[in-house]
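User: Second chain of the day. Same drill as before.
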Amino acid sequence: MAKRRLLKLYRDGTKLARLALGVRARVPREVQLEVTNRCNLDCDMCPRLTLLKVPEQDMSLETFEAVLGRLDAPHSITLTGWGEPLMHPHLFDMIDRAHARFPGCDVGFTTNGHLLTDRMIDKVLERRVSRINVSLEELPWAEGDPQAPPPRDAGATPTNPMKGHENRVARDGHPTPPKVVAHLRRLLERRHAQAARGAPAPEVRLQVVLFPGSGDTIERLVDFAADLGFQAVNLVRLDVRGRPDLRRPTWEEERGLIERARQRAALRGVPLGSVNDHGVLLKLASRADSFCMRLDSYIYVDVHGNVAPCCLLRGHKLGNLVEQPLEAVWGSEAFKRFYGPGVHPACQGCDAFLHRYAEPDPAPRAVAPAPVAVRA
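Assistant: Same format as last time:
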């Protein structure tokens, strides 16, 4: 575990230095594989079927193997697309194959936690899953809890219980029935017992999307993470582009929510971070919000092997790893254009990795320096 932390610190430090200097990675080291776009939920905030219109399909094992064969010593592989990875019938086979080919690679996935039954937890803990991100925006309120906000639209019949209608604050987020809390409690208990025996155990993080007026809820989630022993909490900005039905906090409120969460996390002793809260190092890496840090060493590969520069730009197909070598895709002029100089037109208005909110009609930004060299 200590060796893994040191390696991560080294890799993170190298990336920060490369970003600050404007040096593009020789090949992408961070790979996200869209193993499935099928999901057991239908959250209002998710653009899966509305804006992105992704096909509800699984990646085949043949495509997965072909893509693995093209990768070059990746540091991390995330087996998550726009669906629930635990729905893929061969997810754990994919995890085993990824580790067999790249023993030093971090392999993980993001889940909504609804399918983490005891049998599924057995499968997770039987193999080398490096990390699990659990997406959660609210916890069930106890009946009669004096601190619970009143139910919204009292008396109304939810049109879709899979859209978070039982939530009081994050109504557009992941629905959180009591069974999810029970699943996560068992997962963390067994994970800690495994780590105590000296066996490899995954790092489990709680991932929370920020909603307006969610300060009390976020404090409850931080307490929940501390009580169950999550390794960290990650705060995520809500993306509302093209979604007039969704509302996110003002930027000033977002700052307040992050600070309130930080104070609570420090009090409870659980690490907390947000890629949208830039300190000195992240300001250098993002060149004062003029460059998206995701574009440095990352690719998104869809269910058919098509490569995109970002999960939010899966329609921008810049190559295919079933048909082409990685170097040809990553080294193409079309892919390099996303790195700079300047902000790519497809990225205008996106602030997923920025400190500030993007303007609705972005003004021209300072041109970022072009890459001057290529390094591993």
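The chain has a mean pLDDT of 89.

User: Great, on to the next one.
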